[in-house]
Amino acid sequence: RIFHRPQRAMAPPVPAPESFLKKRKTTEEVKARRDAAAAAANKAKKGIRKDQFKRAEKYVKEYRDTERATIRMKRQAKNNGNYFIEPEAKVILVVRVRGIMRMDPKSKKILQLLRLRQLHNAIFLKVNHATMTMLRCVEPYVTYGAPTLKTVSDMLYKRGFGKVNKQRIALSNNNIISNALSKHNIICMEDLIHEIYTCGPAFKEANNFLWPFKLSNPLGGWRDKGRHFTEGGDAGNRHEKINKLVQRML
Q: Using one digit for the tens of pLDDT, what is the confidence trace for 127-154?
């Protein structure tokens, strides 16, 4: 004989607590807003990256055109029996070569104003009457000259640090530059290099954003820091030869 066990009546489902339903709804809304914000940020990031590439290509074209124009004018001058004199540099690179031993108070104050507080510190400086007058006062303690595009680029990529909330932050991301200088139309490293090299309208803001460069002792050492460069030493104006020195100090 087959006996059938009587089935128990199913209990009605227990409704979820109201607090749980509210929490789940809030969580879903937050997740939806977060996903929408992330999608918008990715889209904006792609647009910014595309703009940065376009700017870099534009700057490369500008540098090449300038270089070709200079070569063409040199050839024309040579063919006509004349001399071509290149325009004076708008920006110079200043490197401190001596410490504070036996330094007079005036020179010490000028070096502080130039942000050259330590040995082997380097800065970019706009050429005008005031800055050149200050440099002549501290010429025994610094060496300077006109930097090339390669020197400016190498210094910013290898030794570049920015001033963010009075802190020294490495320029490892374009967002650091964009957050500080976007109001001056500088959003990436190529913009910063172009502004420094060409002495653009926002040179002061870009240069103040950069922390003074901390370079190493030059490969091969110094010759004579107590003498002027024209006398076989290291201090003073060395014009375009500053680039070879900086490459030894990077």
A: 999 999 999 999 999 999 999 999 999 9
Report how far residue 137's alpha carbon sits from residue 56's, in angstroms, rounded to the nearest whole number: 39
Closest CA to 122 of 209, 241, 246: 246
Cα separation, 129 vs 125, in Å, equals 12
The answer to whether the Cα torsion of 58, 53, 182, 115 is positive or negative is: negative
Per-residue pLDDT reduced to its tens digit, 219-248? 988 888 888 988 888 898 998 999 999 999
User: What's the Cα-to-Cα distance from 21 to each of 13, 28, 62, 122, rounded to whole Å?
Assistant: 16, 11, 61, 62
